[in-house]
Amino acid sequence: MAASCRLSMSEIQRRSKKVGLIPLFTQQTNSATPMPFRCAKCGKHQLKRIGNVSYGKGCLYCGNLKSSEAKKLDIAAIKEKLGSKNYQLISSNGASRIEAKCRGCGRVKKTSLYNILKTSYCQGCGPHKSANTINSLNRRTKKS
């Protein structure tokens, strides 16, 4: 016969403590059934599979906070990146939304930093504007 693969409660407690969770049950059914846990850091209750906890998955809420903090840029880095695209920072929440002003035409843009960095020019003063201006001037001179 095969040996039992079920973890003991002391092993479950040890593994859950490693990832910052406190088990709220006294008897395990199997590793695939969601069981109640409480986060030791934020105190939120959540259902987790024991198998996931064993693999190192911790609190969902604390993990999301940690992830969003890691994505935040400091103001100096944002200003430097915007300066390379000829924009001036007006305001930022540090994570997703910024307000920037084009140094060429003065147009204010409220968007993500990524959207500004992926474009090669401002929509207000980019090369298509100068082409439209030249075309409109040519049309005016032909009518005269």
Structure notes:
This protein is α+β, with helices and mostly antiparallel strands and 144 residues long. It folds into two domains: 9-62, no CATH class; 92-143, no CATH class. It has helices at 9-18, 50-54, 60-71, 75-83, 113-118, 127-143; strands at 21-23, 34-39, 45-49, 87-92, 97-102, 108-112. A hairpin with a 4-residue loop joins strand 4 (87-92) and strand 5.
> Total helix count?
6
Radius of gyration: 28 Å
- Multimerization state: single chain
Task: Characterize the main sheet.
Answer: 3 strands, antiparallel
Q: Can you list the strand order of the major beta sheet?
A: 1-2-3
Termini gap: 99 Å
The tally of structural domains comes to 2
> What portion of the residues fall into strands of 2 or more residues?
15-25%
Q: Which sequence of SSEs, written as H and E, runs from N to C?
A: HEEEHHHEEEHH
Low-confidence stretches: 130-134
CA-based shape: rod-shaped
Write down the overall mean pLDDT: 78
**Helix/strand class:** alpha+beta
Number of strands: 6
Proportion of residues in helical segments: 40-55%
Produce a short descriptive summary.
This protein is an alpha+beta fold and 144 residues long. Helix content is 41%, strand content 22%.
